[in-house]
Each structure stands twice: as structure tokens, then as C-alpha cells.
Automatic annotation (TrEMBL):
Gene3D superfamilies recorded: 2.60.40.2700
Organism: Chryseobacterium shigense
Domain Secretion system C-terminal sorting: 247-318
Signal peptide bounds: 1-20
Keyword Membrane appears in the UniProt entry: no
Coiled-coil spans in chain: none
Domain of life: Bacteria
Record's keyword terms, sorted: Signal
Name used for this protein in its record: Secretion system C-terminal sorting domain-containing protein
Length: 320
């Protein structure tokens, strides 16, 4: 009896092995570390995708889109016919990947994984002021009423961990002990300024702690506090509501939708780059109108929207 059982086991083992080989999966060092089915790059380094041993392999990629379902075609990657395939953070972010394998008479494809650019983005800063207490006097420069304040926020707080905030432009980042521009004791992703200065930050990514970025001197904001003629801290305008609107798709390469159906029409929307320069403005914007941003330089932008009730909304988006 025992020899017969051993014979049957040996007979079925190749079949079981074939079934296992015909259910391919993808593995890689970063896959699933932060989010299931996603590979998050720290920068432009290479990530090796791998699948189980099989007879033949063909790797495919599909570009991400905000549409559901994704209507972009799956494309066979030329020359990607090995058990492993290398992707990188420069060319492959916002793409889906899968592998199709054959083993004997069986052909099967793996579950899909995504190479996401969520974790890595150049630092950007949002400046928030109370209406009626400031005026823009130039690119990246504000006059602000004495007694008011300016709140600075890292535009991508989920990406960055420890911050170093500056009140003047430092001599040479990374931060050095004794630099008089450093605001001591402030390490969070926001800072409220009440004194004149030039503000910006240096921060390290939370997911990639060895990767740190400097905001860049061109993106610092200069604030001049004083008793300016326009100062009107007591007006009702200071009580305006400020929050966010729905903005999609984000990131986008061409079209952007801004707003909510209940508001119907916005008196004005303005798109501002990280230096504080207004790069696009539209009057009487409807929530279901597409805003063409294809001519904008790839990067991070701020959207200021004003509805018919005088409420101001602030959003951010990434132009691919």
C-alpha cells in the first residue's frame, strides 16, 4: 500500500507544481510597505519586480488615470521577458504593472501592482492670511498688518517628517548649528509668523528619512509687518470661511475640475505657483467646467477659489 501512495504522490506533484507556477504574483522590496499593492519610491532609484519561476514571461504596463474604469491600454514592454523586471522612480511613477506567464499549457497573469509617486514630491509651502490684513507687493512678498499673522504650511505634510523652519535665508543648507536664521524648537509641518522676515523650511521625508529637501530660496516668502493703509482687522471680511473644495484629477497633465455642485458658480479661481506668482485666473467658473492646465510647468500649485457668497477656498494640486 505504501509504495502505491508514494507513486501517486510523485505522479501528482508535477501537476500541483504546474498549478502553483500558473498563479503568478509580483514581489518587490517596497511593495506593500506603506500601502497594499503599491510601490512607493523615495526618489528616482530602481526597484526590482519579481515573480515565481515559470516557462515564459511578459511584463506589461498601464498608465494611471483618474477615470474609472481605467481606459488606458495595457502595453507589452519590449524586451521585458525575464523573471524579474526593473522599474524606476523617474520613468515609471503612476503606472500599473503586471506579468503574464506560461507554464506548459497554462497561461496566467498576475495581480496588478502600482508604482506610485505619492511619497516623493518636491517641498512646497502654503501661505494663509486673514482677508483684509495683507496685500501682495511682489512675487513672494507680503505686507501684513501689525497684530495679524501668516500661517505657513508644508503643502505635503504626509510626505515630510521633521522640519527646520527659517525666518531668513540660510547661508547653506542643510541646517547647521548656530545658524541665526533657524527658528529654534519648531519641527512641525506648520509655523505661524508674527514678525517680519523671510520664511521657508528644510525637511526630511517621513518614508525616506535619509532624503531631505530644501524649499529653495526662490520659494521663501518675505513678510513685512506694519501699520499699512489697507489694514482693516475689524471688518467682517476677516470672518470669511476657508476650507477645501473637491479638486480632481490630482495629479493631472491637462484638465482639472474644481468645485462642488451646490455652489454652481465661483466668482473667481486663481492658480498660483510656489513662488507666489499667479499663473492662471478664471472668472465665473462653473463647478463642472474643465480648467485646462496643460500649459503650466510640471510642479506644485495652489488654487484660490471665491464663491458667490464671498467664501474663500484653498486647495493644492500637482501638474504632471
Amino acid at each position: 500500500m505504501k509504495p502505491k501512495l508514494i507513486f501517486l504522490a510523485l505522479l501528482f506533484m508535477p501537476l500541483l507544481n504546474m498549478k502553483a507556477q500558473c498563479n503568478p504574483t509580483i514581489t518587490s522590496p517596497r511593495l506593500g510597505v506603506q500601502f497594499p499593492d503599491k510601490i512607493l519610491f523615495c526618489n528616482t532609484e530602481t526597484e526590482i519586480l519579481s515573480t515565481q519561476t515559470s516557462g515564459t514571461y511578459q511584463w506589461y504596463k498601464q498608465e494611471w488615470t483618474w477615470q474609472t474604469p481605467n481606459t488606458n491600454p495595457w502595453t507589452a514592454i519590449p524586451g521585458a521577458t525575464s523573471q524579474t523586471f526593473a522599474i524606476n522612480g523617474n520613468d515609471d511613477q503612476l503606472y500599473y504593472f503586471k506579468v503574464v506567464v506560461t507554464q506548459g499549457d497554462c497561461t496566467a497573469e498576475s495581480p496588478v501592482v502600482m508604482a506610485d509617486g505619492f511619497v516623493y514630491a518636491l517641498p512646497a509651502m502654503i501661505s494663509t492670511m486673514t482677508p483684509g490684513t495683507f496685500e501682495i507687493v511682489g512675487a513672494g512678498e507680503l505686507n501684513v498688518c501689525t497684530g495679524a499673522s501668516v500661517k505657513f504650511d508644508d503643502a505635503f505634510p504626509d510626505l515630510y517628517g521633521t522640519h527646520v523652519w527659517y525666518r531668513c535665508i540660510p547661508g547653506s543648507p542643510p541646517p547647521s548649528a548656530g545658524d541665526p536664521c533657524i527658528i529654534n524648537g519648531v519641527t512641525g509641518d506648520s509655523y505661524i509668523a508674527t514678525q517680519s522676515g523671510e520664511y521657508g523650511f528644510y525637511a526630511c521625508t517621513a518614508y525616506c528619512p535619509d532624503q531631505c529637501e530644501f524649499l529653495g530660496t526662490g520659494n521663501f516668502v518675505k513678510v513685512n509687518f506694519g501699520s499699512w493703509e489697507f489694514c482693516s482687522l475689524g471688518t467682517d471680511e476677516t470672518k470669511r470661511k476657508e476650507n477645501s473644495l473637491k479638486v480632481y484629477p490630482n495629479p493631472t497633465a491637462q484638465f482639472l475640475y474644481i468645485g462642488k455642485e451646490s455652489d454652481k458658480v465661483y466668482k473667481e479661481i486663481s492658480i498660483i505657483d510656489m513662488s507666489g506668482k499667479m499663473v492662471l485666473q478664471k472668472k465665473e467658473h462653473r463647478f463642472n467646467d474643465a480648467v485646462d492646465v496643460s500649459r503650466l510647468v510640471p510642479g506644485n500649485y495652489i488654487i484660490i477659489s471665491k464663491d458667490s457668497g464671498g467664501h474663500t477656498y484653498k486647495n493644492k494640486f500637482i501638474k504632471k
